[in-house]
Amino acid sequence: MLTQMHTAVLGVLIVSLAVLLAVSGLILMQRRVPVDVRKSHTTGLSQISGGLAAMFGVIVGFSAFLVLNKYHAAQQTVQSEAGDVEHIYHLAQPLPEPEREQIQGLVATYARVVVDDEWPLMRQGRWSPRADDLAEELRRSIQESYKGSTGAEQLFLGEELDVVDDLDRDREARLTSMRIGLPGVLWVALIVLGTSIIGLSYLVGMESHRLHLLTVGILATGIALILFTVFVLDHPFRTDFGVGPQPFELVLHEIEGRETQ
Q1: Considering 72, 172, 198, 261, which has the largest number of Cβ atoms within 10 A of its Cβ?
Q2: Dist CA 117 CA 248 (whole Å)
């Protein structure tokens, strides 16, 4: 169900839930612990809260560095994989029939399956077995043509085999990026430290209950937004803000344009 929900809607729900829980906890604290008692501990708690905030900032910075690199690498991988598809298609152009038609047909079908079938599946953390089969069939077709070729034709086919190796590597890198996320220990640190900072903010001795509720709500909103942003960047193929199949679509547009000429 969550994979079918728009990322923005999911983000609003998560942030709203975090704020609701934080404010509810504060209301309970205000009823049970008098403001005079909280005032007497404000100075010490501020020092502890400042230390936790510094640790939280360090973990957030490290996590942001990892997920931003992952997101950027995913973009480059998709661009490279689409480039491999285009390169294979162009290398097959000088080949005689039926080798040219077979190789170009397979590579165009692979790109179409990646866009139409695999990308929606990647939103659910899955991939297309048909795309796997097409990539393998493409390699097998080029290898068989290579064995029966000579001269310049064999040079083209040999170069195509090298590009197919690149295609397989880029595909595997894309699927690996989809499966592997931020280490669990970092998520534990982020959640525990964020929750602790909000919890300690309950004990600040503010005379105005409304102002205290407002500041805690803003704090919870900020922390929830940070965690949600890290989550989105950590899943470059599973959200509406993730990496899209546009490079493949551009290659398909070019291929279809050539075929209609």
Answers
A1: 198
A2: 13
Instruction: Report the predicted TM-score, pTM, of the whole model to 2 decimal places.
Output: 0.85
Cα–Cα distance between 71 and 115 in angstroms, integer?
19
Q: What is the DSSP secondary structure assignment for residue 96, as one 8-state letter?
A: P
Question: Once rounded to an integer, what is the mean pLDDT over residues 153-165?
Answer: 88
Query: Alpha helix locations (H) across 92-183?
Result: 99-113, 119-122, 129-147, 151-179
- Helix 246-260 / helix 42-91 crossing angle, nearest 10 deg: 20
Peptide bond just before 98 cis, omega within 30 deg:
yes
pLDDT in tens, 216-226: 999 999 999 99
Is the pLDDT at 96 greater than 90? The verdict is: no
Residues 6+ apart with CB under 8 A from 141: 99, 102, 103, 106
Domain ranges of the chain: 2-260
Structure tokens at 232: 């989105």
Is the separation of the CB atoms in 149 and 117 below 8 Å?
no
Indicate the burial class of 10 (C-beta count within 10 angstroms; 0-12, 13-18, 19 or more): middle
Angstrom distance (rounded) from CA 81 to CA 166: 8
Q: Write out pLDDT tens, residues 59-74.
A: 999 999 999 999 999 9
* Of 111, 94, 133, the residue nearest 251 (C-alpha): 111
Q: Which helix (H) or strand (E) holds 180?
A: none
Q: What is the DSSP letter of 128?
A: -
* pLDDT over 80 (residue 44): no
Give the amino acid at 60: V
Question: In Å, how far are 68, 118, 137, 148 from 130, measured between CA atoms?
Answer: 30, 9, 10, 27
